[in-house]
Amino acid sequence: MLRLYYGPNACSLASHIALEESGLAYERTAISIFDGEQKSSAYLARVPTGKVPALEIDGHVLTENVAIQAYVAAAAPSARLMPDDPLSAAVALSRLAWFSNSVHISFRHMMRPMVLTAEETAHAGIAARGKEDFLHNLRRIEAMLEGGPWLMGDRFTLCDGYAMVFFNWASFAGLDLSPLPALRRHAARMIERPAVARVLTIEGSLDRIAEAVR
């Protein structure tokens, strides 16, 4: 049995969408990361890294979005969550890695500069640079959608689920998304997918995202 540990509206949304789109049977457990539940002894006993997402697979624990997404795609080949040809699959994997190690980090710097330093006088500068980098990264995603309607062309892939994380965060942060029409159209297509709508409803962000794409 698969069990996903996720934080509502955290980056684990990418893995949550992947599982729901896959058709695999799984259970989910919400972890209140804003209340520090991921640091509890009970959670650390299962997931020593104290992070979300985590996917429990018959007693084994897998962490990191990209690894979980890769597992889900391999476990549910009929869902076709990755491109079929090797080069396109490698490009998709490259984008997933960039989402994880660059786009995510820029948003973290914008919203939580204190993770870099306890020096309060530095926080405003770090947050400003993080916002600049995050908006730049959103523009890069916008450019990737030029060949749309999906990030890898004419078919939904794991990349689209991960990109939804950043649209969700941008709308939560109140950023002006009007200069990003392709990204907004992409989010509108995403919430029309039954699996995505179910996940966003569970995580409590569907109404906000629906408002942001209008």
Automatic annotation (TrEMBL):
It comes from Rhizorhabdus wittichii (strain DSM 6014 / CCUG 31198 / JCM 15750 / NBRC 105917 / EY 4224 / RW1) (Sphingomonas wittichii). Residues 1-80 form the GST N-terminal domain. It comes from the Bacteria. Residues 85-213 form the GST C-terminal domain. PANTHER family: GLUTATHIONE S-TRANSFERASE GSTA, GLUTATHIONE S-TRANSFERASE-RELATED. Belongs to the GST superfamily. Gene3D superfamilies: 1.20.1050.10, Glutaredoxin. This is Glutathione S-transferase, N-terminal domain. Signal peptide: none annotated.
